Amino acid sequence: MGIARMCAIARTDTEKGAVDQIRYALVAQDGAERYVKGGQWSNLTNVLHWVTRHGNPETMRFLLSLPEVDVNVQDASGLTPLHWAVKLARRVKVALLLNAPGVNVNARELMRRATPLHVALCSVRVTHEMRRPARIHHDTVELLLSAPGIDVNSRDVDGTTPLQLAVLAAQYGLIDERTVKRLLMSAGIDVNARDSRGRTPLHMSLVMERRLWLIEALLNAPGVDVNAGDAVRMTALHRAAEKHDVDVIKLILKAPGRIDLTLRDKRGRTAADVAQLYDPTNIEEKRRLSEIVSLLTPPPAERTSFMRRLWQWARS
């Protein structure tokens, strides 16, 4: 039952009182569910929160079997037991909570309005006012994505979606390729969801250290808009040209669908124009720039079509 462990760890009068109440309720076989529903372990957490963080799965299984237990009870920060189980990567407890009647898989905590799926895909943990990288656990994400009613496109207080968090984690090398691909396969996933800067996940995959497998996975995702522009109308191709990344440019050009090389950003620049802003300093850089410009220059027929559209627009 884990009562011995609760007794050993109890320090304050409130915590010791909680152990006594549960022990009495269990021995009397009366009122256990009422106490677990409303009993406080400390000033901040409920008994179910404590069991989620410190207890064993058998104790949690018993508590969840009680008819009046509140599986969605929130602590002072708005975190539910499911938030905590996900945060601590307690796979068995996550599974138990997801199978509990009435569990809210999309519950939001108070500060960042994050759901358990946001928490599962967050690559930064904040503990004692310190930020440290944390690896994403595939099994936990898989359990959440398989849960009935899961909202894969939920946004936190900053408008960030789970997929955007996964892209950031991938750039830090903190998430497996299979986890990202599993997320991209989720029913109803919005692969073009924009962040506060108008960037899609594809744009975001080019921001920091690029991962070719990540970019390729996004390019091959059903419904991806390869020609989407960000807040300054720069496409993924513009961003790749800005970095002079030949490998990424070639990946984008091979993507399914038509890549529009004539698209211009807010300054009126095509991807080829952006690439040519770079001033090469040696022969190798000049060779690479020449290759990039060649790849990004539209064929004559496409250039003619673009000029015709531009002329028609100017007359209208």
UniProtKB/TrEMBL annotation:
Database matches in Pfam families: Ank, Ank_2
Ranges for the ANK repeats: 77-110, 158-196
InterPro entries xref list: Ankyrin_rpt, Ankyrin_rpt-contain_sf
Keyword Iron-sulfur appears in the UniProt entry: no
Annotated keywords: ANK repeat, Repeat
Signal peptide bounds: none
Keyword flag Repeat: yes
PANTHER family per record: ANKYRIN REPEAT CONTAINING, ANKYRIN REPEAT DOMAIN-CONTAINING PROTEIN 16
Name of protein: Uncharacterized protein
Protein source organism: Plasmodiophora brassicae (Clubroot disease agent)
